């Protein structure tokens, strides 16, 4: 069952890492989640540990001054070790339901530590990760429209399930988008050449429209305002363009997938979306099929 009860935010002492805090506090307000603010001292030196502890103490004071009604909903922690390993271990220890991570640290106590370790954390945890790349908008409700790219396979369902839980609480509209990239050339069996594969674009688009309509119907049954969009072309460009031009506040994606006659390898699309977009990206790892061991 999907729920958000514990959230972990790694902080390296920089302003760049603190852009995650408004999103964490939103989870506190809307879901009653506990917020775990974690710094990792990789140096092991006493003076560095003192700097981190001073940072966390002053952060606690600042948050209490700014959010007095939420005081007591967060805890600060300082751990020693390699940042990615400690963050992943701590996430498991706290049985966290989400990690909120700054994509790039600035110059702070951790010298961009969070930014350097983002990929390792993303690949090393099975928990959903909300990756934040820029300061949030100055408004009370941070997320009004959520874009969920799907590829026609079942892989994207993991992100969709989490969005179906989040959207009603956020009061957000969900936009389901599928970008089809028809394969025109396939390698021959002997590897010596290629052959053209006849594909009917209209047929593929109709199939995508039907797929999204079925997913949208399930969301609408939950009272979620849902829109569907089908486009043909380069997935990354079209997803980013749509997001930038249509007031999207969050993109939610699963980590990988394959989609039959379309050559969308979902992992590479997700990676490029995280690299080039400026809005938050929620990355959800699909559960393995029943009976299949976890990776």
Outline:
The chain contains eight helices and twelve strands.
Keywords, please?
2 domains, Rossmann fold, 295 residues, 10-stranded mixed beta sheet, alpha/beta
Structure commentary:
- The chain is α/β, with parallel strands linked by helices and 295 residues long.
- The chain folds into 2 domains: 6-132, 3-Layer(aba) Sandwich (Rossmann fold), CATH 3.40.50.620; 145-284, HUPs (Rossmann fold), CATH 3.40.50.
- Helices cover 38% and strands 22% of the residues.
- The protein has 8 helices and 12 strands.
- It has helices at 21-31, 46-66, 83-93, 113-124, 157-170, 201-221, 235-245, 266-276, and strands spanning 6-10, 34-41, 74-80, 98-102, 129-132, 145-150, 173-180, 185-187, 194-196, 226-232, 250-254, 281-284.
- The strands form 2 sheets. A 10-stranded mixed β-sheet has the order 3-2-1-4-5-12-11-6-7-10, with helices on both faces.
- Helix 4 (113-124) links the parallel strand 4 (98-102) and strand 5.
- Helix 3 packs across helix 4 (113-124) and helix 7 packs across helix 8 (266-276).
- The longest helix is centred in the N-terminal third of the chain and has 21 residues, at 46-66.
- Mean pLDDT is 84; it is low at 105-114, 257-266 and 289-295.
